[in-house]
Structures are given as structure tokens and as C-alpha cells.
Write a structure and sequence with these properties.
about 200 residues, alpha/beta, Rossmann fold, 3-stranded parallel β-sheet, 6 helices, about 15% strand, globular
Amino acid sequence: MELVSGLPENLDAAVAVALHVPEESPSALPSILSRQGPLVAKHAADGEPLLHGRIYVAPPGRHLLVKRRTVRAVNGPNENGHRPAIDPLFRTAARAHGRRAMGVILSGTLDDGTAGLYAIKRQGGSALVQDPDDALFEGMPASAIENVPVDFIGDVPALTSELVRRTRELAADPAVELDVGDDSDDLDAVEMDHGTPEVA
């Protein structure tokens, strides 16, 4: 909520959020986030366009994946004991958007997100992590800091400022071009599960 409240209306990026919410649990997260700032948040619909200035939230029990032009919300197998998990989100964002991808790890337990954040760094993107001392649960931030060459560590207000600053830099840099291709290639492991819905 604190991070979203600091994002500007004209953000030159899409925001994707994965929170461990099981399928049988209702989630009010999109409405909560929408009330915090100028950006509208909603549960992602499988196959919908990926647009700047929107917040896409993983639906309960679905992995949220970022493609070049669209988002996917898929059943797929659990990762790190969860669905949704953060690693598939980061992994697909890294593949689709390379240097334009930014991963942000906030409070959480264990190490979900560490491997995905490493994938973002490997593709030239940015890794931002909440200071473990600022987090309610330090496990995920501490794991990311220990295993990934992160670009920035700070409390949530500092993370938000850095995220906005980096987004503006990327938008202003003509050298960072995005080669937009066909979204049908580069299937992720979680998309190969028989329970995955087809894109309408």
C-alpha cells in the first residue's frame, strides 16, 4: 500500500503484483491498492493487454506471467509451495522485457523471488529489495540480498522513489529499445501444465 501510494499517475510502466493468496481465499487486494494512489489495480485477466499506468494483481491460485504485449494468469504447478509465486512473474518479465524489467522484493518468508530476481539481473534488468530491517518478515529480502547482486536496498519510501527514478530513466533512454515479437513463443514451465486455461 505504501509503495503504490507513491507511484505517479503518468508512470511509464506497468506494475505486476504477486502475493501468496490460495485459490479458495477471496482477495480484496486490487480494491485496496486502487484506493492508495492514482493507478487502478485489478486482478489480471488471462491474455489481456499489458499497458503502462496499470497495476496487475495475480488472481488467487493463479500465477501471473508477463509477456511482451500481454499478461497471463495460469493454473500451472506450485512453485516454492505457492501459486501464485513470484519467481514465474520475474522469470517471464526478464525474458520478455530484458533491461526494462525491474524486480522489487518486499516483506515475506523463505526465498520466493530470489531465483526470479536473479533472472532479471541476468537479462540486464534492475533488482530492488526492501531493507530486511524495514520488513515485517525479513526472509525474502534477506535471501535476495544474499544471493543476487541487487541494485538498491532501502525502506519502502526510498524503494518507491528509486523505482520511479529508474522508470523515468528507461523511458527517456532511446537506446533501450524493446523488440516486441509474438507472445506465443517462450512458453514458461508453469504454462505447460494441463490445467492452464487457453487465451481467449
